[in-house]
Amino acid sequence: GLTAPEWLLRPTTSNWPLREGKGHLYEGGVRVPLIIKGPGVRAGAVDDTPISSVDYFPTFNELAGLPASSNAGVDGASFAGLLAAPRSTPPRPLFWHYPHYSNQLGRPGSAIRLGDFKLIRFHEDNRLELYHLKEDIGEEKNLAAALPDKTRELEAQLDAWLKSVNARMPAPNPDYDAARESDGYWWKEPGAFERWGKRN
User: Which domain holds residue 60?
Assistant: First the structure.
């Protein structure tokens, strides 16, 4: 944080009931509220349609009256219509790809959300986790084993997207030291922080 340590002694924030936070593929790390005010925007309206930051550009283009051709080659989709009136929109997949570890203890992985279902694949061991967000916003009940067809369907879409964007995938670290994974290593080992700083 800007005025307090992020995690050293105790958490300074909570995303409850969402799981985890920044740097993670769980909802606490990827779900962010969006507030919009402006001409033609429904006052006090709440809409739970999932959107992504890649949708801003085509939305602003539409609001500015630019032709749809101005969005050629853009990944996102305009949500301008949702601002003026409630409407039903067909579900579309949203993707996330974190091919690295984060300083918030997030693990390398990729995820897809389609409708109320979200699939996460962790790249260390290819573990799959499937959640139904409408019924389980805290992502506590992994449905991957119980719903193998849905898991395979979403995994196939995720793989196709990763290939289409030529996503970088994590590779084994030749300098990996399993001893550093143990609880308390950074606190007990003299000079650990200094050595880590020199390596990075």
Answer: 51-90
